[in-house]
Amino acid sequence: MLTADTNAGKIGLMIAAILLFAAVVGIILFIATLFRGRLADRFTAYIYLAPTLIMLAVGLVYPGVRTIYQSFFNAAGDAFIGLGNYETIFTDSEQLTVLRNTVIWVVLTPFVATAIGMLYAILVDKTKFESFAKALVFLPMAISFVGASIIWSFVYAYRPDQANVKQIGLLNQVVVWLGGTPQQWLLTDWLNTFLLIVVLIWIQAGFAMTVLSAAIKAIPEDIIEAARLDGVGPWGMFRFVTLPAIRPAVVVVLTTIAIGTLKVFDIVRTMTGGQFNTSVIANEFYSQSFRSDNQGLGAALAVLLFILVIPIVVYNIRQLKQSEAL
Amino acid sequence: MFGLAKSRRLRGALAGTVGVGLVLGAAACSSSSDSSDDDTASAASIDCAPYKTFGDLKGKTVSVYTGIVTPEDKAYKDSYKPFEDCTGVTIKYEGDKSFETQILVRAKAGNPPDLAIVPQPGLLKQLVATGKAVAAPAEVSANVDKFWGADWKAYGTVDGKFYAAPSGASVKSLVWYSPSEFKDAGYTVPTTLDELKTLTDKMVADKKKPWCAGIASGEATGWPLTDWMEDFMLRLSGPETYDKWVNHDIPFNGPDSTAALDAVGAYLKNPAYVNGGLGDVKSIATTTFQEAGLPILDGTCSLHRMASFYAANFPAGTKVAEDGDVFAFYLPGKDATSKPVLGGGEFNLAFADRPEVKAFQTYLSTDTWANIKAQASQGWISANKGLDTSKVSNPIDKLSADLLQNPSTTFRFDGSDQMPAAVGSNAIFKQMTNWITGQDTKTTVDNVEKAWPAK
C-alpha cells in the first residue's frame, strides 16, 4: 500500500490518485456511450450528473442536514434542547453584540465598496492613466484576507505617548503629526468594527471597480451620444444613462460582496480575535464550536448564517438569469 | 460530429483530471516528519542496558501528535533517539499548532494518534470522554507513583481511572526583573505579598512605572490574566479553596474569587503601577504577552509576572541569570512560610494499547527520559523527582526545578486549564479582557459564572 512517508511515496500516491480519477472518468464516459436510441441523451446527461450529485449529497447536503439537526442539541450534543441555542443567540447580550456587528458589516461593506468602486471606475474611465490607476485599486484583491489584516494591524498599531517611544502605526503617526495623542483604535467599541470593515472595503473595492468598469465600457456609444445631444449633464448622464445600463452588474457586485461579508472570519480573527466586541457570526461559530466545545450553539450559528445567505443568493441568481436573458 | 464533441469532452475531462491531480499532489506534500532520518552516528555511544526491558520492537511504529513545534520539537525527537536505537522502534513525531482543536476532531473521527501530548487536564477529560483514549498500563502507573507527587497523578486521572503520565512542567508563579536595577536602586527580592506591595510603592516613589503586562494572544487573548487571578486565589484563599473553585464546588462569583480578582486589579488596574514602557492600563489588552516583558531590558519597566518559559522571549544574547540582564524571583506567598506554586504541564495520553505504545509510554514516565530530555533542551523541566536538578544548566530552569521539588512547595495546576472548555478557553479569556478594558469585577465574575455549562 502507498503511504506519504517518503517523497517517492508521495509522488506514487499522486500518480495513483490521478490514475484513479482518470479511471473513474473513463468508466463514466464508457457507460455513457453504451446507451443508444431515443433516450440516450437523457441517460447520458444523468450519468454525467451522477458524480456531481453524489459529491453534493456527501459533501453538502448531508453535513448541512446534520448541522441543522445538531443545532437543536446541547453543548455536548447528547440532549435535545429544542430552540434553546437559537434563544441564546437572540437573547444573550454577547450574542446580540455579534448579531449587531454582523448587521453593520453586511449593510455597510457592499454599499461602500461598490460606491467607491463605481466612482473610481467612472473617474478613471477613458483617462490616459486608466490601466495604471485600475491596477492600483485592484492590487489589494491579490492579497489574502489574513495578509491584509496583518498590514492593517500595523496601520492601527499603537505605541504609548511617551518620550523615546516612536509610533509604528501609520494612523497614530498621522494623529501625532496633527498634534493629537495616539489612540488604541481597536479597543473602542463600535469604532473598531468600522475600522475592520475598512479592511474588507479596501480589498473588495477593486473587485467592484473591475466589474463595473467593464459594464460601463459595454454601454453602447450611440446611447451616450444621444443623451449628449439632448444636453444631459454629468449627473444626469450617471443617473439616467450609466446607472440603468449597468444595473445588473451593480446588483451582482453588491450581492457577491454581501455574501462574502456575511462569511467574514479571517479579518476579525486575525485583527482582534473577536475581542473588544468585534465578533461576527462566522467567527463566533468557530469559537463556539472549536474553542468552547459548544457544538450545539456553534451549529445554530452556522444555520443562522446559512439562512441569512439564502435570500441574497436567490436574489443574485435571479438577477444573473435576468441579465443573461437580456 | 458526435465524435468531435466526444473528443472535446474527453480532452476537457483529461484537463480536469490533471488539475485535480496537481491539487492532490500539493496536498500530499504537506509536512509530516519522521525522526528516524536523523543521523544515527550516536547509536554506538548509547548504553542500551536500561532499554532491555522494553524488548525488541523492530519494525514497529508509534505516532506522537502534539502542539509542540519548531524549535522545541527537536529536543523531543532527540530524547526519543536512545529508545528508538535500542529497541528498533520508529517514533513518528507530528507537531501541529492547532493541536488543541485538531486532536478532538481526530479523536471523535476515530483517527487518533497512538500518543498525544496534552497540555491541559481539561482537554484530557474531553479526550477521555470521546471513549477513544486507553488507560495507562500498570508500569506507567507504578512509575508515576514513584517519581511524581499524588497531585500530579490526579491531574492525569479521570473518574478514578489513571490515563496519562505527566511529561514536562512549567512554573508560572514567577516575577521577572532586572538584577542590575535591583542592585543599583537597592531593592530586595520580596518574600511576602506585603513586601511586594511595599517594593512596588517604593518604585513609584522613585518615579517609575513598576509593572508591565500584556495579554494579547490571538484568539486566546486574556489568558495571562487568568494566571494572575489563579496566583492570587491560591495565595489569598489557600489551596483547598482553590481546588473547590477550579472544580466549581464554589461559584466563580463568590467572595474568594472576587477578592482575588480585586487583588489583581490593585496592581494591574492601578494607573500608577502599569504599564511600564507600554502605555496606560488599557494597553495591557493590546500588548502581546511576548512583548510585554521586554521593557525590562530598556529600563522602562521593573516587574513582569510571567511563567518560566518567558525566558525564550528575550532577544538572543540576553543573559538570563541571577547576575545577568534579567532574572525571575518567586512570586511570594501571603507570608514567608507558605509556598504556593502555580504551574502547568503536559500529559502523555495514549489511544492505543499495542505493546510498542505501552513500552514508549513507560519509557516517557521514567527518570531516564526526564534527564535525557532536560539535557537535550533549553527551558524544559519536569516535576519528575528523578530529574537531577544539578544537571540542569539553565539558571531559570534550575530555579523552577528547585521550586517544584522543594518539599514545602504546594503545587497547583493552572486552574483555567482544568475548567470546562466553554469557561477555561473562552468565557474567562473574554471576560478578563473586558475587565482590563474597563468592566467592573462583579460583572466579570458574574459573566464567567453564567457561562459555566450545566452538569
Automatic annotation (TrEMBL), chain B:
Keywords carried by this UniProt record: Transport
KW Oxidoreductase (keyword) present: no
PROSITE patterns: PROKAR_LIPOPROTEIN
Family label: Belongs to the bacterial solute-binding protein 1 family.
Protein's name in the database: Alpha-glucoside ABC transporter substrate-binding protein
Organism: Winogradskya consettensis
